[in-house]
Amino acid sequence: MKDLVSLLLLAVLTLSSVAQAQKRVATGTVPPATFADPNRKQKLAAAFPEIEKLFNTFAERMPGAVMGIVVDGEVVWVKAAGIREATNKAPVTPETVFRIASMTKSFTALAILKLRDDGKLSLDDPVTRYVPALADLPYPTSDSPTITIRHLLTHSEGFPEDNAWGDRQLAQTDETMRAWMRAGIPFSTVPGTAYEYSNYGFAILGQIIAKASGGPYANYMRDNILRPLGMNSTTFEKSEVPQDRIALGYRREDNAWKAEPILAHGSFGAMGGLWTNTHDLARWVAFLMSAFPPRDEVDRGPVKRGSVREMQQLWRMSPGSAFRSTTDAPLQLNVSGYGYGLGVAQDCRFAYVIGHGGGLPGYGSLMRWLPGYGVGLIAMSNLTYGGFNAIFNDTLDALHRTGALQPRVVKPSPALLAAQADVSQLIIKWDDALANRIMADNVFLDVPAEVRKSRWQSLAQDHGTCRPATSIDPENALRGEWRMACDRGWLNVFITLAPTIPPKVQTIGIAPVLPPDAEMTKAADAIVKLLGAWDQKAFEAIAAPGLNVEKVRRQINAASAWGSCKVGETLGGNGTRNSAIRLTCDNGPLMARIALDPASRKLTNLDLVPLREQRCVP
After folding, report:
1. Is residue 89 part of a domain?
2. Which whole-number Å values give the CA distances from 372 to 35, 273, 397, 405, in the listed order?
3. In 3-state terms, the chain is what percent helix, strand and coil (to 5)?
4. Looking at the whole model, is its pTM more than 0.90?
5. What is the pLDDT of residues 255-288, one digit of tens each?
6. How many domains does the chain have?
7. How many of the other CB atoms lie within 10 Å of CB of 518?
8. Of 29, 288, 355, 593, which sits with the fewest C-beta atoms within 10 Å of its C-beta?
9. In this predicted structure, what is the pLDDT of residue 522?
10. Residue 323: its pLDDT value, please?
11. Which contacts (CB < 8 Å, 24+ apart) does range 170-173 have?
């Protein structure tokens, strides 16, 4: 029977390998995003003097600290300060080795994915397949799912948060841990229903790695992750760190630095036991960032690029929040959760932020990066739970002020560019054969061809001859918008392609825009002045009878949070009866939707709308 099971397993793995080998790739259909500014690195460097001042001030509260900035896989700035040990006042350098605590979890998670990719386990395997000590674990409800590896990776196994307890368990033996597991683990939530941070869960992942790989966890990490990445100063064993490089841990007590005992590597090492230095940690962050953007470039490992991206996706949500630090402060968005061994978040400025902190008695660390921007931050200290969130925020602010902290630009696919050319030609001169060739079957079911043809041809009455655009603003490989300049005004055109081969046009939007005439321009200027200071007489001069004065006054009062504004570009409308106009304000853009009476040219309606390009309103 054992031989039969082995043969069946071999057959499954063989079929999996064959399926992988036969995967078809349509090269070039989703071009990788690229940075638009070739001088971005030099421009970002303009912020380094300010960042160094921030770091020097910040590091005064710690025994020792080091911080670095990684751009496009390269360490472009690094600064060390303070002492690595108090007795001889030995200074911290970029070669100093710190314990990085829970940042270890990302290494453990990547090892699990490598074992998965190698066919040694599945993320949906029950943990009991590899950890028999959990076979009799009492579950909290009769309908609880069996805990899987995926549950452990995402802190959703239901174990209680255990930071205070877990930080002291690094040196426990495997035998002790197995005894604890056989005795049972209490649940704070039902498995698979909530996020709750569990060091215990990641310690169990270490046991799974050892079982699936057939050797000690630390050896697998060294041979399959650390050494292939060139992280030669990174280890789980303090004894392997040269004495003249190790940072001893301290806490602040009685106005002095008091030494923290250093725990040995043991069964809980998979959750927080790694030691590393600045250069190695930069290699780690650079490797994780190198998974972006997806591309056809040769994958050099040691783990598949797609798997490295997989661990940086949001798999378990935490409760989101929108808050103000004070009643008069801007509204802040915080949406976050957990990938595999990494935190995933978005805020008002950045839609995709990856990172993880680390804290143990004697140590504090943080790594954070913006995958779409190619920029990462790393920091380590030898202070108990020494945190770097504040200085990381200040550093990103400084980098942002250079104007060079910009994301990669999405590139249109050949199919999208071809569709743009065809749709533009169809707008200029309707052709039934062209329309039937490029449109998906839903288009003329949604709006009959003759109706659409009539509407498009009528555009010439207001706009004259329109011309094809020379560029497109793609949202992704199969969706984008562009502007067609015309004799009078322009057309904003938007399309989405269908999931057909070849991709045909399934959605088309055309927004005709004429510039505001003199009376519309006068109304827009008056509204901007009212935003600065309400003037009843000025308002009465532009208001038509029947205008909802209270509504206008309410919106103008609320718009004060956006600060001083000025009239910007026209976004829509016919320029006489109605216009949508961008207002460029201190605290973000607004759109003024203005309607005028055709006869009196007085204001009949005003709506002030925050533009969606601003992630958070003031």
Report:
1. yes
2. 9, 30, 17, 10
3. 35, 25, 40
4. yes
5. 999 999 999 999 999 999 999 999 999 999 999 9
6. 3
7. 9
8. 29
9. 96
10. 86
11. 170/263, 170/264, 170/265, 170/266, 170/268, 170/269, 170/272, 170/273, 170/360, 171/263, 171/264, 171/265, 171/266, 171/268, 172/266, 172/267, 172/268, 173/266, 173/267
